[in-house]
Amino acid sequence: MLGTEPGGRGGVATVVSLLRQDGLFEREGVLYVPTHAEGSSAAKLGAAVKGLVRTLACLARGRARRPQVMHVHAASKGSFVRKSVLLALGRAAGCKTVFHLHGACFDSFIAGSGPLMQRWIRHTLEKSSVVIALSTRWAGFLREFAPGARVEVIPNSVPVPAVTAGQAEPGRILFLGQVEPRKGIYELVEAVALLRERFPQIELAIGGQGELQEVRRRALELDVADRVTELGWVDAARKAQELARAAIFCLPSHAEGLPMAMLEAMAAGKAIVVTGVGGIPDAVRDGGNGLLVPPGDVAALAAALARLLGDEGERQRLGEQARATIQQEFESGVVIGRISAVYEQLREEIASRGG
User: Fold this and answer.
1) Alpha carbons 301 and 288: distance in angstroms, whole number
2) Largest pairwise CA distance in the chain
3) Among residues 183, 217, 219, 182, which one has the least CA distance to residue 204?
4) Are residues 119 and 221 in the same domain?
5) Residue 298 included in any domain
6) Residue 80 domain-assigned?
7) Which intervals hold domain Glycosyltransferase subfamily 4-like N-terminal (predicted)?
8) Is the pLDDT of residue 177 over 90?
9) Least enclosed by CB within 10 Å: which of 83, 121, 236, 311?
């Protein structure tokens, strides 16, 4: 399995860490090779080179010791380019290959690529033994772009923590993610400004890195700087604490795969306000286990937040339903079982051809 360094920042690192923590690596005999790391350009280049060398060493083993399956976690741009080359090497060595797509902007990446790159992307998808999409919407897009691809839908997994009662602070809204326009952070600050007089206790806690200075400037312009708290990067232990304190989780993104932060908030039993983009509608039913708003619509976002800020019972109902959804559909054991089923099917195909 190839991907970013476990324990690093971002959704893919979290996904990989959970797969290892919850037993997939031990159950399936997975050797994990990091091909990306956080840090400077030199650190990233070093991780890519080390990953390539380790991958080549694995593929050069004798037939009996060579991996049967190469499973890569990929996104867009450089991530796709690196992983597509490694997949090609794996196929040349006789491996079955799994392309696991996480990129929230993979459609935009394809649209912005030239004809040759588009052909290479299509070739990579269609030559992969299995393509894993995080949602039915992403699966539909991939099947339309690469009709010959064998696409399976397997969502991200998330652990279900014990519920901590009585810690939520009324009015506290939690945002977790990269602080950038794609995540809808500026609309969220504007929504807080619209609601400040009606809900004097309102507070926006921002966990993540990115355009914090620009967000701070916008909050000052809207006279809500005193209602915005910057948490910086939030590790796993701090994330659990911040989720416990939050009355509402909000992620008004313009594009997503299937955000881990949202799934973790649902698992923690939090009422959520999110946008119906990417794979989110596979997990969130508007009014059933969360509230969906159109991306970029500040008025709709403010209305949804007001609905929850003013009704503790509604927050509790949606939070309970959100947690139940995770337990039934996204709990780690369920997702790991589905990945194992893909591996088993590929092993059977190898055995049937006498390989």
Assistant:
1) 17
2) 71
3) 219
4) no
5) yes
6) yes
7) 26-156
8) yes
9) 236
Tokens of 183: 């995540």
What is d(CA 64, CA 2) in angstroms, rounded to the nearest whole number? 20
Q: What burial class does residue 31 get, using C-beta atoms within 10 Å of its C-beta: 0-12 exposed, 13-18 middle, 19+ buried?
A: exposed
12/52 same-domain check: yes
Pair 268, 161: CB distance under 8 Å: yes
Exposure string for 88-121, b = 16+ CB within 10 A, e = fewer: ebbbebebbbbbbbbbbbbbebbeebeeeeeebb
**Residue 4 is encoded by which pair of tokens?**
């970013």
The residue range of the domain holding 70 is: 2-157+332-352
Which residues lie closer than 8 Å to 34 by C-beta, 6 or more apart?
2, 3, 4, 5, 6, 47, 50, 51
pTM above 0.70, yes or no: yes
The one-letter amino acid at 87? L
Render pLDDT for 280-313 as a digit per residue (tens, 0 to 9). Answer: 999 999 999 999 999 999 999 999 999 999 999 9
Q: Which amino acid is at 6?
A: P
Do both 207 and 86 map to the same domain?
no
Kindly give the pairing relationship between strand 2-4 and strand 33-36. Answer: parallel
Q: How far is CA 30 from the centre of its chain?
A: 21
Consecutive H or E run containing 301: helix 298-309
Mode of pairing for the β-strands spanning 33-36 and 69-74: unpaired
More confident residue, 184 or 5: 184
Q: For the chain, how many structural domains are there in total?
A: 2
CATH of the domain at 75: 3.40.50.2000
Tell me the Ramachandran region of residue 34: left when phi exceeds 0, alpha when psi lies from -120 to 50, beta otherwise: beta
Q: Is residue 223 in a domain?
A: yes
What is the distance between the alpha carbons of residues 17 and 337, in angstroms, rounded to a whole number? 16
Cα–Cα distance for residue pair 134/105, rounded to 1 Å: 13
SS3 label, residue 93:
coil
End-to-end CA distance of the chain: 20
Q: Which tokens sit at 28?
A: 């399936």
pLDDT digits 0-9 by tens, 146-168: 999 999 999 988 888 887 666 89
Phi, psi dihedral angles at 60 (to 5 degrees) = -85, -5
